[in-house]
Amino acid sequence: MAAGGPANHGSNRPDLRRVACNPDYWYPLAQSRKLKRNKTLEVAFAGEPIVLVRTDSNKVFALEDRCAHRQFPLSKGLVCGEQIQCGYHAWRYDATGAITTIPYMVTGVRPPRHVRAYPCREAYGLVFVFPGDPALAEQTAFPELPWFESQDYKVMSFERDIACHYTFMHENLMDMNHQFLHRRLMGRVKPRLLSHGKGDGWVEAQFRFGDGGGKKHRGANWLTIGGSDDETNFEIMTIRTEYPYQTLKIAGIKTGSVPSLALWAAYVPTDRHERRSRSFGILLVKKPRMAFLLTLIWPVLRHFTESVFAEDRMAVEAEQRAYETQGGDWNQEIFPVTIELRDLLLARGIKPVDGDVRYTSTAP
Length: 364
Hints:
This protein is α+β, with helices and mostly antiparallel strands.
């Protein structure tokens, strides 16, 4: 065990790995293509079961995945037009969660009124749900992906399960000093922090990467195939956490330079203890002048990005296991950007309540 003690030992700071993801934001819970017309899809946010429904008219809505009658999962039911019918006793619900039909309803008996409905939107090939206070949904900013609709970019989407607390994923992307982990894919790349800043709800850092030689995966250079001359001369990577989302872009040094690569990511806790997460990512790669070249090398780029993520997943899952084995967060962090990020995650997350067994520091 490391010398000293857990990172929050002897202070009033909560254990970051016991801070719950704030539900009062829009979170992607599924890729649109996985929710077929007239079908349901079982998803979850922090252990709360949610059913996504795509109706006959292609409308998407989200309900608590429990029938009000016997708590049977509505995701095992049938879509009937614009409603969902429980697969157990055939109770029906509309998009608001109201009960519309009980086939054997007895006169004089007052049925339960509804199940919980969640605000739901479909955008960027994803189904978003607002799992927090529904009264806040309309006034809460929806994620913006400014280049998603541009014909100048080709889109690569990701959805992966990771066995770690969502905060480990935030820290992994924000701290580019871990590139030694990717030495078999990136060669001897040398990251250098150029600047960093923070504000209300955000932390940002800019890096430049020096090439120290070594063997690289072909995709390491091809990802920025659509870069400008300005970017070729001085390439800057900007990473930003704007709670609860993260973005990464690579562009030239000139103000307003269009990025050759842009990534948007969100990490959604899936279990009640928030020790498992689902990562959603949208990667936009700028097309070169001869756009067909990007199509030709696309399988290589996907293999490269999947390989990088596999190494990152190995690392953050190892961090989670260490946390559980040691009974606390023993990380000794020195990088200022990561320290600022941790402060942001603490400030915006939901602090543990005394006696709340969901966020104990040992495995359930």
